[in-house]
Amino acid sequence: MPSALITGITGQDGMYLAELLLSKGYRVYGLIRGQNNPKRALVEQEVPGVRLLTGDLTDLSSLIRAYEQAQPDEVYNLAAMSFVAYSWENARLTSEVTGMGVLNMLEAIRLYAGDDIAKVRFCQASSSEMFGKVQEVPQRETTLLWPRSPYGVAKAFGHHMTINYRESYGLHASTAILFTHESPRRGPEYVTRKISMAVARIALGLEKEIWLGNIDAKRDWGFAGDYVEAMWRMLQQHDGDDYVVATGQTHSIREFLSIAFRRAGITDWAGCVQHDPRLLRPAEVDMLIGDPSKAHQRLGWEPTVSFSELVEMMVDADLAEQRVLASK
Ligand code: NAP
User: Taking the mean position of all CA atoms in its chain, how far away is CA 168?
Assistant: First the structure.
């Protein structure tokens, strides 16, 4: 039975990846941080087969201990301070977790595995935010990185460090350059989930409006369940490599709103959306759109959920959840 260690197990991707690996017969360990983590119960309920280990990306010895306990064949580093807006307010902490945390994960593998480094395969969740002020459209694995937020800068550090450990020590290390991906498990601080929750509440008469920043911002949005499948496929290859994981299509927040409101039965939604300039980014990223052809060709990977299916899935889940909450 292969063994996998997932960091960021309480996050959106952590839970989808855990489900995928459990379904494939893996023994799955999840790293969980903090004393009395409030999301522990959620993980235990959603993915009960996962064995939880305590650790933090900023604490090297906790990571070495986690490797010793899990004896992993595959390691998926999904943990990060991942909210871009928060990273401007907490740039140092973001750099320590999202950037230096990757170095800790890699160094812990060296200390744990010693000369037998080839026994562990490593996947780093890199981000399209590394492209920021884009130097090429669409972005591919070779596009020059030009991050436009502390989060993007920290991800670029982790990305290059992962490649460096592959080239320096022969570690089977891959980077998944993930474009934005969503699901009903997305945190409520992200714009897509903020919209799907608000639309559900407006449709049920529990709320009147939603406040948003730039609704003409465009992103290449996919479904989280598809993206964790790509990460797994990377670690099944003979060698580690870098892959863009994206849909290759771009949509605006305005389009997201339109599909979401329509799904909830509201056609005239203009009056439900208010502009809040405080929600604009200090530095907006440009045309983020990925070219996933390498992942298509080498991994045989394709997204299976369309943009409108994704929006509808999120609205349906939030309508169901809000109905239950409202009935209590
Ligand atoms: P998420 O829902 O925000 O989850 C982040 C995870 O990191 C949580 O489990 C969190 O644990 C954990 N974490 C934070 N600080 C930690 C620390 N110091 N030590 C250990 N764990 C820590 O993120 P996601 O959407 O699943 O994304 C997974 C990965 O893909 C992240 O690295 C993200 O940056 C990257 N990515 C995501 C997207 C996207 O659109 N979702 C796009 C590009 C890249 P707590 O519950 O304890 O906070």
Answer: 27
